């Protein structure tokens, strides 16, 4: 979508928006949940679990589980449950069980911890649908591949509307699934600049508890089975 008014307001580049919010359930998350749920079904699993922060991944997972007739349990930090009451209602409406997580910071990281505990306890019948580009292999690869439709569509749509390739791509980076989905198709295109935008919070200079920018200002560590960039202090 050519954001003409925004382009005029900023007075620089012509800005085009990849409208993933128009997908069923309101976000890009469903691209990934469909793929992983079909894999779960193929593996003979009857129960789906997921973690969610803002709730969009939880809603997308609950939607696909309902469609395929699978039991669905969604772990969500207690803080996020209060902040995202509408999405909690939507998940319950779709037949999912929402489990508030009260440990740690009571947010996404802690929900992921609890989902991991559930998964290893109920591995025989349970498939864990991870929505972020995180966790042990092959999860980051699966999320990338299922979300790569974003970049593939963007490349074709931009070529049709404008011609050629965009000068730059910009995506917010939280869990990273939307960003890697957009970026992956363009990684080998040297003329395209790629920008991921992380949340600086109260400022990068104030330390790892004040921001959400592990790629810009984090350190390398191991979490949830993968070696990656983390926000760490002396306590972990």
Walk me through the structure.
The protein is α/β, with parallel strands linked by helices and 236 residues long. It has 2 domains: 4-20 and 142-230, Rossmann fold (3-Layer(aba) Sandwich); 28-131, Rossmann fold (3-Layer(aba) Sandwich). The protein is 41% helix and 18% strand. It has helices at residues 4-10, 29-42, 56-68, 78-83, 85-93, 108-121, 139-147, 149-161, 177-183, 214-217; strands at 47-52, 71-77, 97-101, 126-129, 168-172, 193-197, 219-223, 226-230. The strands form 3 sheets. It has a 4-stranded parallel β-sheet with strand order 3-2-1-4, with helices on both faces. A hairpin with a 2-residue loop joins β7 (219-223) and β8. The longest helix has 14 residues, at 29-42. The termini are far apart.
CATH architecture of the largest domain: 3-Layer(aba) Sandwich
Shape, principal axes of CA atoms: globular
User: How many domain units?
Assistant: 2
How much of the residues is beta strand, in percent?
A: 15-25%
Fold-level CATH name of the largest domain:
Rossmann fold
Mean pLDDT: 95
Output the structural class.
Answer: alpha/beta
Assign the CATH class of the largest domain. Answer: Alpha Beta
The number of helices is: 10
N-to-C SSE series?
A: HHEHEHHEHEHHEHEHEE
Cα separation of the termini: 43 Å
Return residue spans where pLDDT drops below 50 for at least 5 consecutive residues.
none
Question: For the report, how would you describe the main beta sheet?
Answer: 4 strands, parallel
Radius of gyration, in Å, reads 19 Å
The number of E-state strands comes to 8
Give the helix level as a range of percent. Answer: 40-55%
Order of strands in the sheet with most strands:
3-2-1-4
């Amino acid at each position: 979508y050519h954001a003409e008014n925004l382009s005029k307001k900023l007075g620089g580049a012509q800005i085009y928006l990849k409208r993933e919010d128009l997908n069923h359930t309101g976000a890009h998350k469903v691209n990934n949940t469909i793929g992983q749920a079909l894999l779960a079904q193929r593996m003979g699993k009857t129960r789906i679990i997921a973690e969610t922060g803002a709730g969009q991944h939880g809603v997308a997972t609950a939607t696909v589980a309902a469609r395929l007739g699978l039991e669905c349990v969604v772990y969500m930090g207690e803080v996020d449950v209060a902040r995202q009451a509408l999405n909690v209602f939507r998940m319950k409406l779709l037949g999912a069980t929402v489990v508030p997580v009260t440990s740690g910071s009571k947010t996404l990281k802690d929900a992921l911890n609890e989902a991991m505990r559930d998964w290893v306890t109920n591995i025989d019948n349970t498939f864990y649908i991870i929505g972020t580009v995180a966790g042990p292999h092959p999860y980051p690869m699966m999320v990338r591949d299922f979300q790569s439709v974003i970049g593939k569509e963007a490349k074709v749509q931009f070529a049709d509307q404008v011609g050629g390739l965009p000068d730059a791509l910009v995506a917010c980076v939280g869990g990273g699934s939307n960003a890697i989905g957009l970026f992956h198709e363009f990684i080998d295109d040297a003329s395209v600049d790629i920008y991921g935008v992380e949340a600086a919070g109260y400022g990068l200079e104030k330390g790892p508890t004040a921001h959400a920018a592990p790629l810009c200002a984090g350190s390398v560590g191991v979490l949830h089975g993968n070696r990656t960039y983390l926000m760490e202090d002396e306590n972990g």
